[in-house]
Amino acid sequence: MINSSNHTDSRRQFLRQAGLAAATVAVAGPAGALPLGAAAPLADSPRKVGFAIVGLGKYATEQMMPAFKESKHCKIVALVSGSPDKAQRLAQEYGVEAKSIYSYQDFDRIKDNPAVDVVYVVLPPALHAEYVVRAAQAGKHVLTEKPMAPSVAECQRMIDACRKAGKQLMVAYRAQFEPFNLDAIARIRKGELGKLRFVTADHGRQVSPTTDKADEWRVVQKLAGGGSLMDIGIYSLNAARYLTGEEPVEVSATESTDRTDPRFKEVEDQVHFTLRFPSGVLATCTSAYSIEGVKRFRAFGSKAYLDLDPATDYYRHRMVIGNADGELTTSMKEGNQFAAMLDHMAECAQQNKTPKTPGEEGLRDIKLILAIYESAKKGRPVKV
Amino acid sequence: MINSSNHTDSRRQFLRQAGLAAATVAVAGPAGALPLGAAAPLADSPRKVGFAIVGLGKYATEQMMPAFKESKHCKIVALVSGSPDKAQRLAQEYGVEAKSIYSYQDFDRIKDNPAVDVVYVVLPPALHAEYVVRAAQAGKHVLTEKPMAPSVAECQRMIDACRKAGKQLMVAYRAQFEPFNLDAIARIRKGELGKLRFVTADHGRQVSPTTDKADEWRVVQKLAGGGSLMDIGIYSLNAARYLTGEEPVEVSATESTDRTDPRFKEVEDQVHFTLRFPSGVLATCTSAYSIEGVKRFRAFGSKAYLDLDPATDYYRHRMVIGNADGELTTSMKEGNQFAAMLDHMAECAQQNKTPKTPGEEGLRDIKLILAIYESAKKGRPVKV
Known about the structure:
Chains A, B: Residues 1-33 form the signal peptide. Two copies of one chain form a homodimer. Chain A is α/β, with parallel strands linked by helices.
């Protein structure tokens, strides 16, 4: 009998019954105690790992840069921007030296800045390849936002450039460093849901280019490389892969876009897709740019289901596990997924080790996204 | 600002803000106040409408027959069963005369029983056509369980037989008489979610033929006519239609069945499908026989979403409406959907008027189910 409860005691009792107490309670501990491939604490380092932030848009300035203050091993030491005023203001806030502010034109001079260990590219997707390659050529490790790039060729060029430079390349899949998501993966792997049968994942939002400057590039194909699927459907796709732990063998997709809506002259609105995995597990996902926000998934097993809603938000995640007896709302401390991701990148830079979400992970999603577009366009399943 | 709350006051406040107070509060009233095409109270009738129950399985005896006690205008007056002992016991419980107990062989004698107005067929789907046709030929109105029948030809034969007899034929879509579902439809039609963009619906359960006698026929193709899609996926399908208020023009489907599982030698396990509606709305649905139970849907609009989970259970429905400001859990009295459906059938029998869910409604779902199977088999979208 599962009790519906927010209390940690009830949750622990449930976990004990499921024989998962020891392993899983660790996940419920303080932020940073990430059991699944995330960074272990670094030994005392001589100095923090220095990051250059390329692109000072809304996401960078409002979500990601503040997380440096909660990271253990990371420091912003350089800024790259086309807006000198904004860069100077942020440089003061984050203690960045004036000489470490770069424009996009003189970005390559960063090779002479020994304080910069990692370049974090936070530009629209179509610009990722150029700046990742230039960063690698400047001898820096690279962290790039997702989607990695709009084409397989660009992704491959990014991977090759970093390999040639002997530098690490990581794609910023923050949800893979978020404690609720890691706990969900752990529960599925340990069989807490029984045999996994299918996953549903829904990601959507209103794209508002006329009222939100941060959305302007999102409706321009040559900058975004695609519509809702590239931008947020990728969360449904990536979740389907990390929840199942498998790689899909077939995708089927249906698109629906109102092309009279001025937002959708170039990019798509809705893409719904089903992934078939080798085990027989299916993942059925939705992605949309014309709805009130949703970021959720549910994993359905033979004995129980696990619901995370929101699943991939910045905060206020909510996990519910249900079986024939009822539902349990789990209680867990929110962790700073941005800080955990940055600390992992720092560790990989310092030890020159392959990140948990390397360029190859980004490339896999891009290949699948392109196959989903192909399936929707051709009206048939596409083998991958 | 929407407050998360179970209190009716908060809900009323929300409704007022949405300008829906007058119309929708009626829905939140006592069971039976069904605003959307359901039966209006009958004038005082000289006697209750008499029903014959054909098939005394678990669903009939545990869910549906007890609901007669809560109906206003219906009475069980005859039983048709292959188990005389069971029939006699139930006859005593429901006050049915011994002479009004029939076997399947002598069922046609029911034409001479003037107490029987309506025959309610609660047999496995493959037997519906035979008993609906025999009931019509006996001069009775007919209510039949869903799915209507495994083939279009059988559905058409049922419709034709009732038309020829001048009798009404209704398919027992109980969710279309359930107050939460009716409220969801009303909210969508009134634009409370903004412009409807897509629907997701998930229905699944563990089919357990070795431990639950009621599941034995469900894994036999010649009785069930199909697997999870026919039995419970039909709730996802029907909900997609009544929530959108449209008829789909295209279906795309993916099937996944472990044929080494002895339950699935004849019928399918999972079918996931997407319906495309003329307005551009999509409905993405799942159906499965190998998971812990789920019966839920969510409608996604441009301004808000509406979640019903469970959506199509017998009781304990839960509606949540969410927008950019938060979520509202609505509070509403549970109504007896079975009794509401039976009273609607009684009204249609007395007034000889077309039911809200006539044979044509059942036929539409069967055509779509067969198109979904075809799409999954051929690996391409099917126009409907």
